[in-house]
Every structure is written in C-alpha cells, then in structure tokens.
Amino acid sequence: MKQSKWLYLFFVPGLIFYSIFFILPTISAVFYSFTDWDGLTTNFNFVGFENYTNLVTNDSIFIKSMTNNLKFMLFVVVFQTLFSLVFAVLLVKNTKTNIFLRALYFFPTILSSISVAFIWSYMYDPNLGIINNLFTSVGLEMLANNWLGDQNIAIYSIAFVQVWFHTGQMLIIFVAGLQAIPEDLYEVAKIEGASRWQTFSKVTWPLIAPAATIVVAYTTIQSFKAFDLIYAMTRGGPNYATEILATHIYTTAFRSFKFGYASAESVIFMLVIALITFLQFRVLRANRVEN
Amino acid sequence: MKWTKKLLLFIYATLILVPVISIILATFKTTSEIYENILSLPSSFNFSNYFGIFQEQAMGTYFLNSVLVTLVSVVFTLFFASLVAFGITRLGGWIGGGIFVFFTIGMMVPAQVNMIPLYQLVYSLGLTNSLVGLMIVNLSVTLPVAVFILSGFMRSLPKSLFEACTIDGGNNWQMYYRIALPLSLPSLSATAIFLFVMHWNDLLYPLLFITKAEYKTLPLALLEFQGEYMTNYPMLFTGVIIASAPMILAYLFLQRYFVAGMTAGSVKG
After folding, report:
1. Model ipTM?
2. Angle at A108 between CA B78 and CA A178, to 5 degrees
3. Is A224 in the B-facing interface, judged by CB distances under 8 Å?
4. What contacts B19, CB < 8 A, 6 or more positions away?
5. Ranges for the ABC transmembrane type-1 domain (chain A) (predicted)?
6. How large is the average pLDDT for residues A43-67?
7. What CATH class has B64-210+254-265?
8. Domain extents for chain B?
9. Interface of A with B in 265-284 (CB under 8 A)
10. Which of A139, A184, A208, B63 could tie A177 with a disulfide, CB 3.0–4.6 Å?
C-alpha cells in the first residue's frame, strides 16, 4: 500500500509540464475568446459572445477559410485514402521490389513541411516548373496552369502536395492491415471462383475496415493541421483562396493583433475538429458492424 | 492487369523521384542554368552553393540549434512520458484510466488552438528567443502522443514480471528502470523516431517564439531564405538539402524503424 503512494510521483513531471503548457493555454483560449484582448496590453473587456457572432455573421474571410478547410480535407481524405489503399493492395507481398517501392513512397513523410513546400512551389512554378514544361513539351499547353496563383485551383494544388506528402505513411497502415488477413480466406474465394473485385469487396475490404477507420481519422486531423505547408507555399493567398482556419488564426492574432477574436476562431476550430472526428467514428463504426 | 499495375506503380515512383532528384540536381546548378533547362544535368558537380550558403548564412548555428532543441526535447518527452505510462500501467483502475484520458485528449487539440495563450505564457516567462523555451513547449505538446504509444505498449507487458520484482523487494523505481524501460525498448525507439521527425521539422513554435538569428532553427531559417533568395532556387534547395540531410541519412540506415515509428502514433489506436 505504501508502494502505490510513491507511484503518484511518477506522474508529477509530466503533469506539471502538460498542465501548464498545454491544458492551461487551451482553457485560456476559451476564456480569451469572450474578450476584446489585443495581446499587446494587459487590459481587456469582456464582450460576451460578440466575437462569435461577428465571426459567423459578418466575417467573410472566416467563412471562406472554413470552406477552404473543408475542400482541402475532402480532397486529401478521398485521394490519400484511395491512393494508399490501391498501392497497399498492389504492394502487399514482401518481395524485394515491393519493399523498395514502399520505402520510396514513404520517403516524403520524413521531410519537413517547409522543404516539401519549396519543392512543390518549384514544381508548380508557372514558367520554370516541371509540370507546365512537361505539359507544353507533349503538346498539352491547355493543361498548363498557374497552379498556386489561380484562385480556383490553388487550394487543390496544395491539397495534392499534402497527398504526395503522406500517402506513403498511410500505405504502411493498410499494408499491415492486409498482411494480417489469413491467406486461406483468399484460397476459399479462389476456389469459389470469385473475381478480383468480388474478392476485394467481400474479403479484403471488410477485414481492413478498422485500418481504414484509422487512416481516415488520422488523415482528417492531419489535413486540418496543414498550417506549415500552406503558410510556406502561399501564406493563404492569392486573395484568401488558400486561407484555412489555422493560417487565419495565425494572421489574425500575430499580424492584426486581435487575440480575443482569434481565440474565438480557435475555439470554433476545436469544436469543428471534435465534431468531424466524432461523426467519422460513428459512420465508420456503423459500417464495420454491418460487415 | 499485371501491366496496368506496373504502370501505376511506376508513375507514382516517378512522381516521388522527379521532384526529389530535380532539387538535388538544382543544388549543383547556377541560377541561370536553372532557367535554361530544369531537368538537365548541371554543367559540373561543384559544391559552390553549399559553400556559399554556409558563408552567407549562419547555417552552422541553425543546424546546432535544431540538433540541441530536437535532442533535448525528445529525451525529456521520452523520460516524462515513460514515467507517466508506467504509472498508468501500475495504477490501473479508474484513476489510471482517468490519467490516460487526461493526457491523450491532448492529441485531439491542434497546436493552432492554444498557440495564442501559449505565446503569451512563454512571453511572460521570458522564454521567447530561448532554446530552453522551445524545448519546454516541444516536450509539453508531444507528451500526449508519447504517453499514448508507450502506455499502450507497457500495458501488454506480463504482470507477473512486476509481481516477481515486488516479491524480490523491488520498489516502483526499480520496477520502472530495471523492467519496464528495458522491455519497452521497441516502443521507446519507435516513439523516439516519431518525435525526432516531428521536432526536427517543426516550424510553428520557432515561428512564434524566435525572432533573433542566433536562436533560429533550420525550418525557420529556411522560411526566411524564401524571401531572401526569391528566385535563387539553387540556394534555396541547398538549404533544403542541408536541413533534410540528417533525416535522409537516418532514414537510409534505420528505414524499418522509421516506418514503424512514424506509424506508431496512428496505428496504436
């Protein structure tokens, strides 16, 4: 019994740092969201829900950031999950080539967002970039674009980079899931004369649904956090076409010095993430039970 | 079928290789060479950009700062998180479960949510423009994921080992560093790699807390090269290669561990 008292000491250092530098600021964000604090002075007034009502009713850039976040998230979740699943199916066997390709596909994951941002700014460069040059040299000029400068496509151009960045990581999760499926299930399917698609939809998919849950949930959260990538590639421009909540909060707080207002944005940000994660788990879990 | 499969794999391999190779080539080129033909080989493989960037920029300082911040942050996160994970495992019950939830809930909160009060806190403690400030923040924000991975692993260790230690008169501390730590080595190394990549590449916290050149880390320095070398891609990419070199080298030699580590944070759920 005396032993277990000492056991509480093990939590002390972790709890101190985590509480002071993580929990406390998170709670303070909620507190500041009800103030008009500018972050520079020590005085501020309580303004009730004013920040929130302003955000929702007359801040078109905030609404735009939120929409961009959703576009970015949808693109990344759909393509990253699709790509990683397809490549995992193709590379599931542990042959030498497959192991090499998995390692190659995984490689971008270890780079920093800022390096990836520079690499792709270069690839996308309208004059210099490899992409436009490639299209032009094969006679497809009409596909050449100002990838990061065109308001209509810039957000998708960056979303594609995010997919390039992390597909390899998600691929590994799927490969692990696939390799855990017993071989004899496939043999049964073969004997029964199932087509490739039938085998996939009736055997593989139900059994990797848990892995898919993880991939989708993780990708969603990751795509919401894409601050570094976007900040380094476009700073949210042109004309807020790539502004997402994370970059908007940063500029509102540290460029316009509206700390209270930006805190209200971050509280909404937190709620949106909580809601999306919750919905995903419900939908994906329901799927799993059906199967 | 076989043919489309190979084509698909080949296309994606090219999609990874072309950007990477073309920026490596770019570091050996001059600016005008880049403008002539992006995919061509450089006229000569000389390292003038590499020497140039070390002369023009305090690359050595940035590099050292990154190394220091990353190493110290990783070591302390691992130490504190393994203590917590051990406590959770030994305590069990609703208190252990409650502490586990308290820590791991942090994984759901993106850094941008609490960065404003965090900035204020760090500022009022006089820890802006300080490597120690960066280390403290780093270790605090990565505790959730580290506790998550490590306690998942420690829970799977056989209880009988701890009981045997109690019978031999061992106390909690001995249990922790004689049994739990050595046996958790696989998950400790996976967590370490995950944290290494994360801290080494982090941009947000240096961007928030560091303004003086002598405390800048590599990612922050790179971000500022962007303005300075607007169209000087060779120099920019030389910076990218230098900043990524340690991770790339480590990846070449410890590939298996990297893959395990980088996925640990997401799979253990």
Report:
1. 0.87
2. 80
3. yes
4. A119, A120, A122, A123, A130
5. 66-280
6. 84
7. mainly alpha
8. 64-210+254-265
9. 266-267, 269-270, 273-274, 277
10. A208
